[in-house]
Amino acid sequence: MRIREFVESDWAQVWPIVRDVIQARDTFTYDPDMNSEQAHAVWVLTPPGRTVVALDDADRIVGTAQMQTNRPGPGSHVSTASFMVSADARGTGVGTALCRHVLDWARERGYAGMQFNAVAASNESAVRVYERLGFRVVGRVPGAFEHPTLGRVDLLVMYCEF
């Protein structure tokens, strides 16, 4: 697998991943009815933020990540990131590789740490990956995420200090 900077021609492969993830309603707080243009505006970041794609051995995009400063001003020393992996590539290490990539990106830029603002507690595989890579749960918002089958589940705030 290879991770590289997003280029505009990638959107044709990234959009179906984004669409499927947000329409599933089980991990992201994005509006499941957003169209391609709306999703592009939210997902594809301009510098100093960054969007990347993960490609398999056949150069097919199997995942994507975005990374940026978490908050401006006095909070600008902390980064954040988000990840989406195609359904057929989940469990193959794509999410782990993307998370390692964004952590390296943030460390290289001198951030003090990385914060994830809204991880659905029911997304246990992602929580395990994040914890394995050094994140810990620092906050919990009870019932803040409306899961399509589990009902209201907690949203976790996770942090990795560098």
Strand and helix layout:
Blueprint: E1 2-5, H1 11-24, H2 36-43, E2 50-55, E3 61-69, E4 78-85, H3 94-108, E5 113-120, H4 124-132, E6 136-147, E7 151-161
Parallel strand pairs: 4-5
Antiparallel strand pairs: 1-2, 2-3, 3-4, 5-7, 6-7
Largest sheet, spatial ordering of strands:
1-2-3-4-5-7-6
CATH topology: Aminopeptidase
Q: Quote the distance from N terminus to C terminus.
A: 26 Å
| Top-tier CATH class | Alpha Beta
DSSP strand tally: 7
Give the strand content.
Answer: 35-45%
Helicity, in percent?
Answer: 25-40%
Structural class category = alpha+beta
SS field, number of helical segments? 4
CATH superfamily membership: Gcn5-related N-acetyltransferase (GNAT)
| Residue runs with pLDDT of under 50 for 5 or more positions | none
Number of domains: 1
> Mind describing the biggest β-sheet?
7 strands, mixed
- Mean pLDDT across the residues is 97
Q: How would you describe what is shown here?
A:
- With 162 residues, this protein is of the alpha+beta class.
- It has a single domain (2-161), classed as Aminopeptidase, CATH 3.40.630.
- The protein is 28% helix and 36% strand.
- The chain has four helices and seven strands.
- It has helices at residues 11-24, 36-43, 94-108, 124-132, and strands at 2-5, 50-55, 61-69, 78-85, 113-120, 136-147, 151-161.
- Strands 1-2-3-4-5-7-6 form a seven-stranded mixed beta sheet.
- Strand 3 and strand 4 (78-85) form a beta hairpin.
- Helix 1 packs across helix 2 (36-43).
- The longest helix has 15 residues, at 94-108.
- It is globular, with a radius of gyration of 15 Å.
- The mean pLDDT is 97.
